[in-house]
Amino acid sequence: GEMLALLGANGAGKTTTLKAVSNLLPAERGQITAGSIRFDGGDVSRRQPGDLVRAGLVQVLEGRHCFKSLSVEENLVSGGIGRSGSRAEINRDLERIYAYFPRLREKRRTLSGLTSGGEQQMTAIGRALMSRPRLLVLDEPSMGLAPLIVQDIFQTLRKLNRESGLSILVAEQNSAVALGYADHATVLENGVSVLSGAAASLRQREDVRAFYLGQQPSSAAQPTHLHAVV
Fold first, then answer.
1. What is the distance between the alpha carbons of residues 117 and 123, in angstroms, rounded to a whole number?
2. What's the CA gap between 31 and 6, in Å, rounded?
3. Residue 30 CA, distance from chain mean position
4. The pLDDT value given to residue 59
5. What does R_g of the chain's alpha carbons equal in angstroms?
6. Distance (Å, rounded) from C-alpha 67 to C-alpha 112?
7. Which residues of the chain are under the pLDDT cut of 50?
8. Which of 192, 190, 199, 125 is nearest to 156 (CA)?
9. Does domain 1-56+133-230 correspond to CATH entry 3.40.5.10?
């Protein structure tokens, strides 16, 4: 029921972690070599990605993946079909998505490939929501988008979390915006978790602000070096 941000620089291991959660690593000849990841009491590595989606674990991949030759609404409907929703259920869910993303209603008949980057990201998130997830996993939703669009998307994610109790796991390089909306955060460096805690607390730490938010520590404060804990 919370929003957890997974932070780190490019190459820190965020995408690999999310693909492991959704059991997408085998598609890239990857595997979990130690430990386990459990969702709803079961080991995700023993379930097909499609089965995980139907069980409520839905991922929005990095890169605003849409069916560009389909309209915005056809993209959204495909998310409902994936969970075998009835026509009435899909229509109700469409109205819910349009309430969260009014711009998608305006573009509902437009081919997704002709919409803006922000609208494509909203379409990808909306399609995932049409699957009625219990855990929504997002990889770099802010990538390549204007700051105002990023704020709009994160505000909507926060609203979804607050109103429906949807659990959200989001990987982000944009630590400033992620820490502004998440409940908790974990920082990765070179594939290792080096820091974890309440987002509000991490946002106030001088070392986090210097290393991950690009802000210089105050003259009175000495920066703290982060050490990996294995």
1. 10
2. 20
3. 21
4. 94
5. 18
6. 7
7. 219-230
8. 125
9. no
CATH 3.40.50.300 placement within the chain: 1-56+133-230
User: What tokens appear for 223 in the block?
Assistant: 């920066």
175-203: buried (b, 16+ CB within 10 Å) or exposed (e) per residue? bbbbbbbbebbbbbbeeebbbeeebeebb
| Amino acid 216: pLDDT | 57
The pair of structure tokens assigned to 70 is 């389909």
3-state secondary structure at position 173: coil
| Closest alpha carbon to 144 in 160, 127, 121 | 121
- Token output for 101: 């993303």
Q: What is the pLDDT of residue 87?
A: 87
The residue count of the chain comes to: 230
Cα 214 vs. chain centroid, distance in angstroms?
Answer: 22
Residue showing tokens 């075998």: 84
* pLDDT, position 230: 36
Note the pTM of the prediction, 2 decimals.
Answer: 0.86
